[in-house]
Description:
The structure is a single chain. By secondary structure, this protein is an alpha+beta fold. It folds into 2 domains: 1-30; 36-150, Roll (Nuclear Transport Factor 2, Chain: A). Helix content is 42%, strand content 30%. It has 5 helices and 6 strands. A 6-stranded mixed sheet has the order 2-1-6-5-4-3. A hairpin with a 2-residue loop joins strand 5 (124-134) and strand 6. The chain starts with a helix and ends in a 5-residue tail after the last helix.
Amino acid sequence: MLTSPDVAENVMLADSVSTAMLLILGARRHRYDTDPEVRQQVTERFLAACLGGDLNALMEVLAPDVILVSDGGGFTGAPRKPIRGIVYVARAIVVLSKRRPAGSDARLLHLNGGPGIVIYTGGTPVLAFTLHLAGGAIKELHAVSNPEKLRGVMT
């Protein structure tokens, strides 16, 4: 079967448009910081701000367009939708910090390839934070309080 030049040109055009769109979407993806020392320092500052309930200190380590994504698995009171923006995320974290169970213990641990924070109550993990940085600030926070997913966290 022969194809007309119009069909062949349309296929080539569609292919080049697809490639161009992939390049444009790829350029818009966030690149996260991978420097282990920077990640560790920001995580430590984040933890200190959380433990102190210090809204201003939290805002110093958060990116303006930060996103907090939580997973309670329907078992905890975790927000079901992402929280966006520095003010809203910082306030949510301060509220979470104040609700920390008495006698809980916060530890810096290696989670998902980088520094993270795990809150334990009576030796049982109840909350895990992983942080994703861009430009030395926290761009994305993942908070997991789903007990089923926390079973794999070592003490």
